[in-house]
Amino acid sequence: MSQLALTTNPPARRRQWLRWGALGAVVLVPLAFAGLFVGALSGSDNALENIPAAIVNEDSLVTTTAADGTEQNVFAGRQLVTELTASDAEGFDWKITNADDAEEALANGEVYAILTVPSNFSKSILSISGDDPVKADIAIRTDDAHSYLGGAVAEQVGSTMAATFGNAITAQYITGLYSGLGDVGKALQTAADGAGELADGAEGLTDGIGSYSEGVDKYTGGVDSLAGGLGTLNTGAAGLDKLTAGARQYTSGISQLYAIIQPINAKIQAGTPLTPTEVYTLNLATQGLQGVSAQGASGKKFVAGVGTAVYGIQGGISKSASGAAQISGGSAALRSGATQLESGAAKLADGAGELSTGLADGAEAVPVFDEDTSKTAAEVASDPVAVDVTTDNAVTDVGQGIATFFVPLGLWIGALAVFLVLRPTTNRLLASTANNGRLVLASLVRAGIVTVAQALLLVVLLHVSLGVSWSLLPATLGFSLLMALAFTAFHYLLTIGFGRAGLVISLFLLAIQITSTGSFYPIELLAKPFQVISPFLPLSYGVSGMQGIISGGDTGSVILAAVALFAFGAGSVAVALFAMRRTRRAVSLGLVPVTA
Fold first, then answer.
1. What pLDDT does 379 receive?
2. Secondary-structure percent of the chain, ordered helix, strand, coil, rounded to 5
3. 529-532 CB contacts, 8 Å cutoff, 24+ apart
4. From the first residue on, what is the mean pLDDT of each consecutive set of 10 residues in the chain (596 residues)?
5. 401, 395 contact by CB (below 8 A)
6. Which residues form a coiled coil (predicted)?
7. How high is the pLDDT of residue 516?
8. What is the pLDDT of residue 563?
């Protein structure tokens, strides 16, 4: 009867439910780890917009003058800031501030990156179309003391942002290039028009030269005809000179004969006999008349000569007139040809001017670079914006970055393992007259010896295998020992208060802390509930302190983490004293077994 009552009393049933509850909790541990990770990172696709970052815009306004004389203000830095801070912009939660405030916020961990737009940003953007193209630099500054992967995320965001903004600049440059090609096309069209006028002028000049040649031929023929007519006229005129002289001699001879015969004829008419002298004179006169008769026969020749001369004169005059007419016609052709020559020459001059102007405009519209400048311009145009990333307190070794998380994690798991092996107390100690403080201290010292050894091994691993500077040994050793003791006190509290079920609780808490601790990635990437509880978790301070020590960051964050861990350990000890008193009382009343 008594045995039945023992097995069915409330303490026995309570212990049985605790065992089954512990088994159920153990079954749920893997699900808890996986579920918490999934829940914490469920909104990470858009969580990047929650990561705070600062923008410092130091860009200076640049005024440019277009080809038509109009002025345009260029403030590329403001355009970049506007795009980054737009409500629909992807990327960090950018906050516009000045350089001093941004630096302070980065040091305090309020922002994970600072993006600085330099004063020559707009000038560099405009240089892409000048003779000395340079890339526009933007500076991104991060700090590994607060998040190891925060700097990498900022660098990636910065590179993406620079590529996007650079593509827009490249598109504008190509648009301007095509616009410039349009100007070149217009200039070449002007040159083509000038070339057309040159062709028309050349054709007109050819026609003018033909007309001029034809006129010259007619003029030459007229001159030849005129020269021939003038020669014939001159010959005929020479015959007339001879005819005049012969006529003059003939008239003189007749006049002389008339003077001789007239007196003798008067005597004969009067019937006066002639003297022998007069008879002799009459005979001489008769002979003279015969000579004159002979000359009269020759007179026909003279008459014929006169006709010939006159005909020659008329022929010469006719040829002269024909030659003059040809000269007149040739002169007209010459005038027409000269006019066409003048018109063609004018068109040639106009066409040559337009061709020269068009080619000059085209040459001015096409930039001329040497080989090095052309290569530089091509590189700048393809990637106009460069990102210069600097990291404060940089952790250069990946292993060191990982150690900032896994050292605290290892010490937590180490403390849990200690109490899997060691019981928090014994029957003898609980039944002794020792006060609660002495019992708690004895259990903590016994477990602490093991966890301190664990911390020493981890510190050796940090400096020997991972290359952490030996100058940091006092800090790494002291902080690791503090973490080990704080975690030991907390796990002692769990075991003294909940028995072995407390270790299951530790696993659940570990799952929560792993997902909620901002270590590799910024805490803002997590879901909101995990961000809220993160500052209250001991592992968060352990990671923060190790990051500050290894990266060489602000000592304030290390001191804050040390104080928080000390408070966490001291609080665990204080609560453990209360749990010890409660346990001893329960044991004395037979409510729980001593070995719990």
1. 57
2. 80, 5, 15
3. 530/39, 530/40
4. 47 66 71 68 65 88 74 79 78 86 88 87 76 78 76 70 63 46 51 57 58 58 57 56 58 64 66 64 61 52 50 54 55 58 59 58 54 56 72 78 89 94 73 77 92 96 91 95 97 88 89 81 80 90 91 86 96 90 66 48
5. yes
6. none
7. 85
8. 97
- Asked if residue 535 lies in contact with residue 513, where contact means CB atoms within 8 angstroms, the answer is no
| DSSP characters over 89-145 | --SSEEEE--HHHHHHHHHHTS-SEEEEE-TTHHHHHHGGGSSS--PEEEEEEEETT
Measured in whole angstroms, the distance separating CA 224 from the mean position of its chain's CA atoms is 78
The amino acid at residue 485 is: L
Which DSSP symbol is given to 472? G
Residue 506: the pLDDT is 92
**524: its two tokens:** 């803002």
Taking CB atoms within 8 Å and a gap of at least 24, the contacts of 254-261 are 254/292, 256/288, 257/285, 257/288, 257/289, 257/292, 260/284, 260/285, 260/288, 261/285
Residues 6+ apart with CB under 8 A from 158: 113, 115, 138, 140, 387, 389
CA distance 143 to 146: 6
Residue 553 structure tokens: 């960051």
Res 73: pLDDT? 77
Q: How far apart are CA 350 and CA 357, in angstroms?
A: 10
User: What does the domain layout of the chain look like in residue ranges?
Assistant: 2-40+397-588
Residue 142: burial class (beta carbons within 10 Å; 0-12, 13-18, 19+): buried
Pairing of strands 93-96, 385-392: unpaired
Locus of tokens 């579920």: 35
| CA 536/CA 77 separation, integer angstroms | 41
For 267, other C-beta atoms within 10 Å of its C-beta total 14
- Could you tell me if 140 and 388 are in contact, meaning their C-beta atoms sit under 8 angstroms apart? yes
Question: From CA 490, how far away is CA 569, in angstroms rounded?
Answer: 6
pLDDT at 408: 95
Helix (H, G, I), strand (E, B) or coil at 65: strand
Bridge partners of 389, per DSSP, are 140
